[in-house]
Write a structure and sequence with these properties.
The structure holds two protein chains of two kinds.
Chain A: H1 2-5, H2 10-36, H3 43-72, H4 86-93, H5 95-126, H6 132-140, H7 147-158, H8 172-179, H9 193-219, H10 223-231, H11 236-247, H12 249-264, H13 268-273, H14 283-293, H15 297-328
Chain B: H1 3-17, E1 56-61, H2 67-82, E2 85-90, H3 94-103, E3 110-113, H4 116-125, H5 135-144, H6 147-152, E4 154-155, E5 158-159, E6 161-168, E7 171-174, H7 176-182, H8 190-202, H9 220-233, H10 236-243, H11 252-265, H12 280-283, H13 292-295, E8 301-302, E9 324-327, E10 337-347, H14 352-361, H15 364-373, H16 393-403, E11 408-411, H17 419-435, H18 440-450
Parallel strand pairs in B: 1-2, 1-3, 10-11
Antiparallel strand pairs in B: 3-10, 4-5, 6-10, 7-8, 7-9
Classes of the chains: A mainly alpha, B alpha/beta.
């Protein structure tokens, strides 16, 4: 038994992992076989056998922790005594958290809209050009970089050194300013512009995703529609406005909501680049800081619940749009 | 690999690492016996721990490579002589993860906790998980550490943790060669320090450089500044009351102290050499902010002894070298407050091997083993430490100041305060203090408001 619980070496851990996976396969196989073998099994038994493990897994892994978090948000900082809605009152009344909520709002509005807009325009512009393949690859590349990596890269881009003899700029943006004869700026310092500079990083990452999905949608517009529109005299921006955009509306909605959901959870960029200082914190970052650094468990849970509540309408809207899109097809 | 072979390979590694504990050959039996391989170490000292063959002790800390390598090397004598195995795990997310592991019922055997305030909250939140120190540990603590250091590891009269490493923060880094060239003297009082700063300005340079950017922990170097100056303008007694919240955080005496810090850090003429204006303090990485001293763009940088790890390898850290540090002077030459810190060994299990390892870590044998495998940047408050083993002059100076009774030692204040303040608002408000020129009074009032009521 000890061999199964305490893995010392990496090799041992791998073997254990393999054993665990095999165990899972065997148990699941046994259950399914047991249901399948006898001829007349009531429908509910089959349903329970197939759904049961999933329901139990979701219950332990998702529902229970979710309910625990909701309950935890009603407790004090040590997670012991019941304090009612006090944590929520704090989040919505104290200055520092209002900054956090304001920033989150900026992120959720600006990132999906700008990333989708830029991605869409880019997709239309490069569509069926000679460099389409290369152009798409370039804009898609940032998607492959982790948010922490992107944060570090952009921190260097924004890096500030004074305009002083013997001191050289490190950040490319400030070097450009100096070449233009302008004083270098501390981009990450002044509120609320610094949040915009952080948002730029997320847009840089997400545009590739928007471009890829939208490009595929554009290519799926039937040729006869485009041709008919052209015969009716539609060109350029009008074609874009009246044919392209309406035709890919479902894809647009999915892209916007998906990016919005990812943006609500943004944490890595803020943490790597400013640590939430200088008024750049967002809900996900503040949730981590309160829960794990300051150890105010109640407040951390309240922030997590707020994040959860904010995501729900987006998820519902996203799912509904996906359904509608499928019905059309 | 059988255990004997494993031991032999370990012993080879030990001699390769240069562990110089050549106190004498231990009672080696015939060739090939288990003890033979550990001949370089005096195993007699380890007999008190008994035979711990096959036992494992897990250690969880915030100390990561390359310092972790030195930590592991310092355990070799213990491992070789007792046969126990130390499983070392260092994590940058240590402070966040330790409570998670305790909540999950998966504690490490031993953890090195860098803040007494954190220890206190762990004992309060997880009374069953934190294990009081055993007899041997208590005996070591009382014998080799001053009562103050024992007190930092004590919660409600019970000793839980013993000091591991120590550091001294009341230092100002400077360039001895540049000082000599310009004819500057090392100041011995606060007024002389301010005069020197003005002198440097008059000579056409910016005296100070400072940076408090440290990722998620941005702001902590500024809290050290405040603590050091509170000790100098208000005195050690007021400092204790302030740290223990017996006076409000925004007491007028603290406002005065913050004002004195501002006389340097918020004076555009005094900062920020090579790094920009006053606000650049907030965005300059603390571990790079003193590079202006060898580069000649600034002259003074207040930082702890462990800042030496951040200098370029080519620089000589010595009293007559490229860079060195002088004691941040007190109000008068006889007023010598000393700010410092350290980490504390805490056990979460009372298994014999865990208690034995804890006792070893609190003993002079470990301190000396650690000193001899560490190149620079480490010393301990252990009175049994042989300071001649310390390999860097700044470490020797730090140890000297720490053990000199004419200096009044005080432990880092923010490390003793509740997490919401010491690792929360004190950091963020000090950052706002430089970044957005928030006033002294507003900063201190905001921190006071965040002090947990219970």
């Amino acid at each position: 038994m000890d061999w199964l619980i305490n893995a010392g070496s990496t090799g041992h851990k791998f073997v254990l992992m393999f054993v665990a996976i095999m165990l899972f396969v065997v148990v699941m196989g046994a259950i399914l076989l047991a249901v399948d073998r006898p001829k007349r099994v009531p429908g509910w038994v089959v349903a329970a056998a197939f759904l049961g493990p999933t329901v139990i897994g979701l219950g332990f892994g998702l529902v229970y922790p979710g309910l625990r978090t909701v309950w935890g948000s009603l407790l004090d900082s040590k997670g012991k005594d019941y304090v009612g809605l006090e944590n929520y009152v704090r989040v919505f009344s104290e200055d520092q958290f209002q900054t956090v909520l304001r920033n989150t709002l900026m992120w959720v509005i600006l990132v999906p809209l700008l990333a989708t807009l830029i991605g869409l325009v880019y997709a239309v512009l490069v569509d069926r050009t000679r460099f389409e393949y290369l152009a798409k690859t370039l804009i898609f590349l940032p998607m492959a970089i982790s948010m922490v990596g992107a944060g570090i890269i952009w921190k260097f881009v924004y890096e500030f050194r004074p305009d002083q003899p013997g001191v050289n700029q490190i950040g490319i943006l400030n070097q450009l300013l100096v070449w233009l004869g302008l004083p270098p700026q501390q981009f990450l310092l002044s509120e609320p512009a610094n949040t915009l500079f952080l948002i730029a990083v997320m847009i840089w990452i997400q545009t590739g995703f928007a471009m890829t999905v939208l490009s595929a949608a554009i290519k799926a517009i039937p040729d006869d529609i485009v041709e008919a529109a052209r015969l009716d005299g539609l060109h350029g921006t009008k074609m874009f406005r009246f044919i392209t955009v309406p035709s890919i509306r479902p894809a647009l909605v999915v892209v916007v909501t998906t990016i919005a959901m990812g943006t609500l959870k943004v944490f890595d960029i803020v943490r790597t680049m400013t640590g939430g200082n200088f008024g750049t914190s967002v809900v996900a970052n503040e949730f981590y800081v309160q829960s794990f650094r300051i150890r105010d468990l109640g407040l951390g849970a309240a922030l997590a619940v707020i994040l959860f509540v904010l995501v729900i309408p987006l998820v519902i809207y996203n799912v509904r749009q996906l359904r509608i899109a499928e019905e059309i097809r | 690999m059988n255990s004997m072979g494993r031991r032999r390979s370990r012993a080879t590694a030990v001699s390769a690492a240069g562990v110089l504990l050549l106190v004498g050959a231990c009672g080696s039996n015939d060739e090939g016996s288990a003890e033979e391989t550990a001949a370089a170490i005096d195993c007699a000292q380890f007999e008190q721990y008994g035979d711990l063959e096959g036992k494992t002790v897990s250690v969880y800390t915030s100390i990561v490579d390359p310092e972790a390598e030195e930590q592991r090397a310092s355990y070799k004598p213990f491992e070789d002589c007792t046969g126990a195995e130390i499983e070392y795990e260092g994590s940058r997310e240590f402070e966040a993860q330790l409570p998670v592991r305790l909540t999950a019922g998966n504690p490490p055997d031993i953890a090195y906790i860098p803040q007494p305030g954190f220890l206190k909250s762990l004992v309060e939140d997880f009374p069953d998980a934190v294990t009081p120190a055993g007899e041997a540990v208590v005996a070591n603590a009382n014998e080799f550490y001053t009562p103050e250091w024992v007190e930092y590891g004590t919660v409600d009269g019970t000793l839980y943790a013993t000091p591991l490493g120590a550091n001294v923060k009341s230092f100002v880094w400077y360039s001895p060669s540049a000082f000599e060239g310009a004819g500057y003297e090392v100041p011995t009082t606060w007024d002389e320090l301010m005069d020197l700063s003005q002198q440097i300005v008059d000579d056409g340079a910016i005296p100070w450089c400072a940076g408090i950017e440290s990722g998620e922990a941005t702001g902590w170097p500024a809290t050290d500044w405040v603590e050091d100056v509170v000790l100098r303008t208000a005195g050690a007694d007021v400092y204790d009351q302030w740290v223990n919240h017996e006076i409000p955080f925004n007491d007028p005496q603290i406002v005065t102290a913050l004002g004195a810090v501002g006389d340097i850090l918020k004076n555009p003429e005094y900062v920020n050499g090579g790094l920009g204006g006053v606000t650049s303090i907030a965005t300059s990485a603390w571990n790079e902010s003193a590079n202006g001293i060898p580069d000649g763009t600034c002259w003074l940088h207040r930082a702890a002894n462990f800042y030496q790890a951040n200098w370029d390898e080519g620089l000589e850290v010595a009293e007559d070298g490229d860079v060195y540090a002088f004691y941040l002077p007190g109000k008068s030459a006889s007023d010598k407050p000393l700010l410092g810190g350290g980490e504390f060994v805490t056990a979460f299990s009372d298994r014999p091997e865990v208690q034995a390892f804890h006792a070893y870590l609190s003993s002079p044998e470990w301190a000396n083993a650690k000193a001899s495998v560490t190149g620079q940047g480490w010393f301990s408050a252990n009175s049994g430490l042989d300071s001649s083993l310390l390999q860097s002059p700044i470490d020797q100076l730090s140890y000297e100041l720490l053990t000199d009774p004419s200096y009044t030692f005080r432990f880092d204040g923010s490390d003793q305060m509740p997490g919401a303040v010491g690792a929360g608002t004190f950091w963020t408000e000090m950052t706002a203090w430089v970044a957005s020129d928030k006033s002294d009074q507003d900063v201190l009032t905001a921190i006071e408001a965040s002090w947990p009521s219970s």
